[in-house]
């Protein structure tokens, strides 16, 4: 193998290594844990951000008029977690709806969320109709 081919091979290996590192670093930075309310109790002492899924407890939503955000409680039927969210409330947000929140627990055990996602209710699923020919 001559010097030109060795330089080309080394250059290609450096480029592949750099791209691989950037992909790995990007995945590490954007990956977020996804836990149930029960599983999230393990994260109380940590300062790590994660996602948590649960159903909004009926009657727990406290939202001041003319303000962004809300305080509410979610549950997975086994445990409950208080949530404090600051941001735009999705139109579908209400009691008994499944939500996913992203954030972390504060020192008081309240989950401070910066992202709130709601699941689409079943009324938007395609209905089954009997099509007779």
Structure report:
The chain has 133 residues and is an alpha/beta fold. The chain folds into two domains: 1-31; 33-120, Beta Barrel (OB fold (Dihydrolipoamide Acetyltransferase, E2P)). It has two helices and six strands, in the order αβαβββββ. The chain has helices spanning 3-30, 37-40; strands spanning 33-36, 50-56, 70-75, 80-85, 98-105, 111-118. Strands 2-3-4-6-5 form a five-stranded mixed beta barrel. It starts with a helix and ends in a 15-residue tail after the last strand. The model has no long low-confidence stretch (mean pLDDT 86).
What is shown here, in short?
This protein has helices at about 5-30, 35-40, and strands spanning about 35, 50-55, 70-75, 80-85, 100-105, 110-120. The protein is α/β, with parallel strands linked by helices and about 130 residues long. It folds into two domains: about 1-30; about 35-120, Nucleic acid-binding proteins (OB fold (Dihydrolipoamide Acetyltransferase, E2P), Beta Barrel), CATH 2.40.50.140.
Instruction: Return the string of H and E elements.
Output: HEHEEEEE
Strand arrangement, largest sheet? 2-3-4-6-5
Q: What is the CATH top level name of the largest domain?
A: Mainly Beta
Q: Judging from the principal axes of the Cα atoms, what is the shape?
A: elongated
Q: How many angstroms separate the termini?
A: 73 Å
Mind summarizing the main beta sheet? 5 strands, mixed, barrel
- The whole-angstrom Rg is 23 Å
Unreliable stretches: none
Helical element count? 2
Helix content: 10-25%
Average residue-wise pLDDT: 86
CATH topology of the largest domain: OB fold (Dihydrolipoamide Acetyltransferase, E2P)
Instruction: Kindly report the name of the CATH homologous superfamily of the largest domain.
Output: Nucleic acid-binding proteins
């Amino acid at each position: 193998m001559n010097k030109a081919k060795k330089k080309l091979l080394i250059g290609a290996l450096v480029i592949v290594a750099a791209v691989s590192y950037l992909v790995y670093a990007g995945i590490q930075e954007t990956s977020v844990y996804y836990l149930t309310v029960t599983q999230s109790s393990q994260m109380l002492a940590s300062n790590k951000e994660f996602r948590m899924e649960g159903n909004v407890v009926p009657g727990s939503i406290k939202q001041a008029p003319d303000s962004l955000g809300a305080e509410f409680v979610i549950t997975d039927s086994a445990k409950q977690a208080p949530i404090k969210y600051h941001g735009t409330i999705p139109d579908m947000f209400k009691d008994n709806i499944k939500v996913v929140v992203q954030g972390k627990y504060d020192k008081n055990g309240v989950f401070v969320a910066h992202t709130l996602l709601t699941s689409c209710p079943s009324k938007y699923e395609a209905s089954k109709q009997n099509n007779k020919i």
